[in-house]
Amino acid sequence: MTDAKEFLQRLDDAAQRTEAALDRLLASEPLRGEIARPARLLAAMRYASLGGGKRLRPFLAIESARLFGVEGEWPLRVGCALEMVHCYSLAHDDLPAMDDDDLRRGRPTTHKAFDEATAILAGDGLLTYAFDVLADEATHADAQARAKLVLALARAAGLGGMVGGQALDLEAESAARSLSQEEILTLQAMKTGALLRFAVDAGAILGHASAAETQALSRYGAALGAAFQVADDILDAAGDTAALGKRAGKDAERGKATLVSLLGLDGAIARRDRLVEEAIAALDATGFGPATQVLKDAAVFVAARKN
User: Fold this and answer.
1) Which of 4, 52, 199, 260 is deepest in the core (most CB within 10 A)?
2) What pTM was computed for the model?
3) Are 202 and 78 spatial neighbours (Cβ–Cβ below 8 Å)?
4) Coiled coil located at which positions (predicted)?
5) If you ran DSSP here, which 8-state letter would residue 221 be given?
6) Structural domains counted in the chain
């Protein structure tokens, strides 16, 4: 296992690099082909995406690409595009029509800091810009690789991924019956797991991975994403608002379908730990040996996190 201090330093380094790159991408100067960047909308997009978060998704993209010797701007830009999609989803999920949250990362949610219409437009802007970033030649010299990245993120973020998962989550709140374990797992794989899996899939795309390497990394990403969501459910049930930076206990308040409600806290913890083991085993199948240690540590970190 990597020294804990070293792992956290690499995570923090990726977060700082992502923050700086997002800051540059969300500058006031229009890009070629843009007409103008409205100041208030830009401010809301920056508010929604800058100044917080562990940047786990960009970190996973960066470290996955590193397995193939791909470093620098390419994986960083992919990480920024992914973070834009993630942050747009948070801005929209926090709206009164969705999860109705006032607090995110220890500060007012985007619609509270601005207004609901601006929060919706900020999310729209971040989502659209993410694909702009991926399609740009600066993200990869190979047009086919860029097209694969665009397609993979669209599939992970859209109807059959994150957006579809959010729809299932909202439906479950008013359903006449509780969801089965299989239904909860499908919902969570879509809503949360799909973007985390994309992060490692993106590293494989950037590095022109073999089919076997791609499959092993995708299995890792799927197990990691599932572990992340179970850990999130556990934190919501057992954590506190101050530590989380968002309202604790909201899943139970809204009657959300989680593995904690189905399996109990101990059962959910046991499943989380099994998923971490699955993620680590998937990395062993990549053939990269010790080079995967940081990604193994990421799986352990996901399970042990406090916020």
Assistant:
1) 199
2) 0.92
3) yes
4) none
5) H
6) 1
